[in-house]
Amino acid sequence: MLAALLIAAFSQSIDSTPPPRPPRTVAIDERLAADAGIHVGDRLLLTPTPGGDVGSAGSGDSVIVSALVRRRADPSEVARAEYRVRMHLDELQALIGYGDRVDRFAVSARGTAGTDSALRRINDAAFGFRAYRSRDIAVETSRTFLVVSRFHRAIGVITIVASAIFLLCIMLLKVDERRRDVAALRLMGISARSIVRSVMVEAALVAVVGSAVGVGLGWLSSQIINWHYRGVYRTPLAFAVVTPGIVLLAVSLSLALGLIAGFVAAQRLVHMSPLELLSGRREERSPAAAATAG
Amino acid sequence: MLLRLAWATLTRHRSRTLLAILGVAVSAAMLLDMVMLSSGMRASFRTLLLSRGFQLRLAPKGTLPFDTDATIPDASGVMRVLRTIPGVTTVSPVLGGQLHIVRGARTIAATALGVDPAVQGDYEITQGRAPASPLELVASDDFLRASGARIGDTLSAASGYDAQLRSFSGQRVLTIVGRAHFLYMPAEQRAVAIPLATLQQMQPGPATQNRDHVSLFMVKAREGEPVDSVLRRIETALPRVSAISTETAMRQVDERLSYFRQLALILGAVSLAVGFLLVTTLVTVSVNERLGEIVVMRAIGVARGRIVLQIVIEGIAIMVSGALGGLGLGLVTARYLNSILASFPGLPAAIDFFLFEPHDAWFALGLLTVAGILAGIYPSWRGASLPIAVTLREEAVG
Predict the structure, then answer these.
(1) Is residue B251 part of a domain?
(2) Residue B194 domain-assigned?
(3) Which residue from A97, A150, A287 is facing B9, i.e. has the nearest CB?
(4) What is the pTM assigned to this prediction?
(5) Would you tell me which of A218, A276, B132, B180 could form a disulfide with B123, CB atoms 3.0–4.6 Å apart?
(6) A155 to A148, A243, A254, B39, B351: CA distances (angstroms)
(7) In this complex, do B341 and A287 lie within 8 Å of one another by their Cβ atoms?
(8) Residue A173, min C-alpha distance to chain B (Å)
(9) Domain range spanning residue B71?
(10) Is B248 part of any domain?
């Protein structure tokens, strides 16, 4: 018995030598790895203050990079150029002297009802902190993009107004060019309604073909924009997306504008008599004559 | 005579001309807005940064001021070093934090700045006075509105909340002595400023913890002293902080808001192209309609150059009329667009994305005039170069 105790004590004294501590590991941002030339397996020194040393006050920690992390497509992170290091909670708490504290907990619940119930119960029981739905936080952190989205909408409205005027001008010119043809058609007995319809069909065709080209250009632009800004901000976020809804809206708007422009231009034409159209009177005066008169 | 002829041609198709002017006005408005957007943001930010005369900011190494929660330790030591650097005249330390103000049954959260009231560059007193003792504060309009407090009131403020003990930590009773306009705060931000030492002592953590830290230092260089030289001296003396000059800050802002400059460039170019196309189309159609007149003028001895000039004047007239109309329209739309972008979270209320400067208007007008000249040159030259006899015959026969 005594021998057994002695052996145990002896072996204890041997085993009491502290085992070598496994190296701490961290995961770092892909952009930090790229900018600083860090690779998986590299050893880094993490300190809570710039230039801190291991072993000194506010000491740092020697770690090994075990993984590189790609950023999520999170709008709230797009404009932030900071680097990120992911490490175990207890190690970070110890490194920065944070104590047994955390900034937030992420809680998973089953379904919407489960989320509502968990939210209610946590907020009823909690004192000094508050639970939020992830969706609400996402809305709050996406405010920057909501502002940008509103700005884009306003720019879109101005563009639509400019396009409408441009389209109306073009249609007016096109219809004006065919004054003599229209006069001939009217003299042959073709009704004003038929002429208005034909002009409107032409305007609709122009609008549809223009829309198709526009959708193609839009898609191409969105690809270039995404490629460019993903590179600039180093994020997988999609900056421009062409959805069926957007295509439908653009084509419908273009068609409506085209039809209105065609209708206005045609109305102007059919309200003149064929003889006026042929002679070019009413609005038109010879500039030379006008200059002389003036 | 030339002007009279151009005027007569333009008034001949009034609706067409008016529509073209309207189209150019919208394009000009957009162009002016985009020129304002591309330069206004920088000018506005620069004005804000230099508004209190501090040309340099010192932030924790590798960060921008208030970009992260990182702070500069041993603030007193850094202050001592800064005061020995030649060219440095004023150093203003700033610590950022949050305070919970208890008002009856409710608690109001406010952004707190710990400053040295004698040299601070973060706010301007609009009513009352600056804090003169450690337990005095100045507050923003929004804070006073939200809390219902007035100058002279005392407030119970805490810097943290201990969830385990269910009590506020770092509590002080502070007296409001002034109302202030915070220069770098977003609109509707509830903000207060208290003496730096008070905010440092209120910070959560064990009593033994060293609280001598700040978020940034603002530094004024002596007048006439090159700021870059002072910056280099600071970087040499204090390798553990990032010294940021106004130019560096501008570059960082440019980088972060490059999207808006690129958008301004693209939309400005598109606006100019649309205006150019509109006038080109109009002048081309107008020339085609008047081929008979043009060749008659050539036949009676009017020089080709004068005909080209007359048609170019028409293009310029449309462009300039549209541009003048677009100036007013552009200012109205710029104001509206600015109000949208002003709601960017965290953006100082004093920043304007669209800032009108007369040279912007001249630049936009100049671009449009050049576009008007270019729009008229090709169709007019083509029209004036047609063979006189053949064209006269074709026009006569129809």
Answers:
(1) no
(2) yes
(3) A287
(4) 0.69
(5) B180
(6) 10, 19, 16, 18, 20
(7) no
(8) 7
(9) 62-239
(10) no
